[in-house]
Amino acid sequence: MFKIIARDGKARTGVLKIGKKKAETPFFMPVSSNSAVRFISTEDLEEIGIKATISNAFILHLRPGEKIIRKIGGIGKFMNFSGINVTDSGGFQMYSKEIFISSSNKGVIFKNPASGEKIFMTPEKDMKIQLDIGSEIAMCLDSMPLFSHSKKEIEEAVRKTTLWAGRCKKEHDKLQKKQQKENKQLLFGIMQGGIYPDLREKSAEDIVKLNFDGYSIGGLGLGEPREKQYQAVEFQKKFIPENKPVYLMGIGTPSEILEAISLGVDMFDSRLPTQNARRGTLFTSKGKLRIFNSRYKTDKKPIDENCGCFVCRNYSRAFIRHHLKEQSGTGRRLATYHNLYYLSNLMKDARNAIKKKKFSEFKKKIQKIYQD
RNA sequence: GCGAUUGUGGUGUAAUGGCAGCAUGAAAGUCUGUGGCACUUUAGGCGAGAGUUCGAUUCUCUCCUAUCGCC
Fold it and tell me: What is the distance between the alpha carbons of residues A296 and A7, in angstroms, rounded to a whole number?
């Protein structure tokens, strides 16, 4: 399922294989919450070299509903994406004021923002939904504390996350027995603990004990100091068995991703590259470029002169700036395409650097360009 | 030519005899496990002149501007 093929220090590259699908790690998953990456077609994703995306079970449960997706043949068929489909549980939506109502030991009460209908989400229901959606990798329903929460609140979130992880695992095992072999779904456990080593340790021990197919480090990138984030990853990574994939949820920037890779992380996702693209912050080989800056108004050059993507081969900064300002689909598509291409390429370079045992130099070079 | 109405950031609009507000646009920044939802900071204005008043963007007068009507 997961085979490490090269190492450079703690950094590693491997192959994650699920059924007929496989992807080399480390890789980055764009956010496709509602079964599509915003402004980007599946053909674009394949052209960019994206091997996995992450959809959101709760969002898809609201619309169109997992039953419909199941009838079409699962999320892969539904999206026409041949890569690895990951689903997030929806635990993260506990911070969405529009849909979250309350949470208890039993589960989470959400509301459908369109109808106002209340939805009681339990770990068991969430497992069923993710299985119906038919993702290759499901995530446990977790309880994510914010950086601003007190240590006591974070401790409580760790407790609840463990409780739910146990129930997810049990239900998932039960549901898997009925699945055909080629449709087996992996389940990842999620660790919490904020920036507190003792809570990170407790969470890691609890979750690892449950024996998941992979492990996610959650609850980071929420405003904590960068050093604390790296410490939490480094600390929790030690508890995870070497042969299991490690997924750092919600991260992030080029610098953060490379730092985490150097600590042995294999998978990433973040809305940052796509959201930033829409809002005019673009990745380039020379660092961030804010396309809205007036100096690009009449700039004929591509976003990045060293980029080979079709956007950079064909379109000027002036054109993309104009269309982003107009909030047109064209502008958003071109900017999103480029940012994902940049990140996809960065991951490819990172894998090659690990294979050549030159990852540390590579990381330093990029982090010098991206200091935040 | 005469009469009426009008004039507030680039644009569109409030309020007021005592610190001129809002929206949008502009300049720069933020964005991390849905969102095309956003957020932060900065710059920018009372058509001109005179008068009344302690004090006028506000009241009065003249001029200018624009719009409408009349000859």
Answer: 42
Determine contact, residues A287/A369, Cβ cutoff 8 Å. yes
Q: How far is the CA of A339 from the C1' of B1 (A)?
A: 67
Amino acid present at A294: S
pTM: 0.95
Nearest nucleotide (C1') to alpha carbon of A142: B33
CA atoms within 13 A on the CB side of A365: 11
Copy the structure tokens of residue A266: 């294999």
A268 CA: nearest nucleotide by C1': B33
pLDDT single digits (tens) A141-193: 999 999 999 999 999 999 999 999 999 999 999 999 988 877 899 999 999 99
Residues in chain A: 372
- Tell me which nucleotides of strand B come within 7 A of a protein CB: 26-38
Sheet holding A21-25, edge to edge: A2-8, A11-18, A21-25
**CA A297 → C1' B12, Å?**
25
**Distance in angstroms: CA A291, C1' B19:** 38
Q: Which residues of A are catalytic?
A: 88, 269
DSSP annotation of A50 reads: -
Instruction: In whole angstroms, give the CA distance from residue A93 to residue A78.
Output: 23
What value of ipTM does the predicted structure carry? 0.94
**Domains located in chain A, CATH noted:** 26-270 (3.20.20.105), 290-372 (no CATH)
Of all nucleotides, the one whose C1′ comes closest to residue A250's CA is B33
* C-alpha A203: how far from chain center: 20
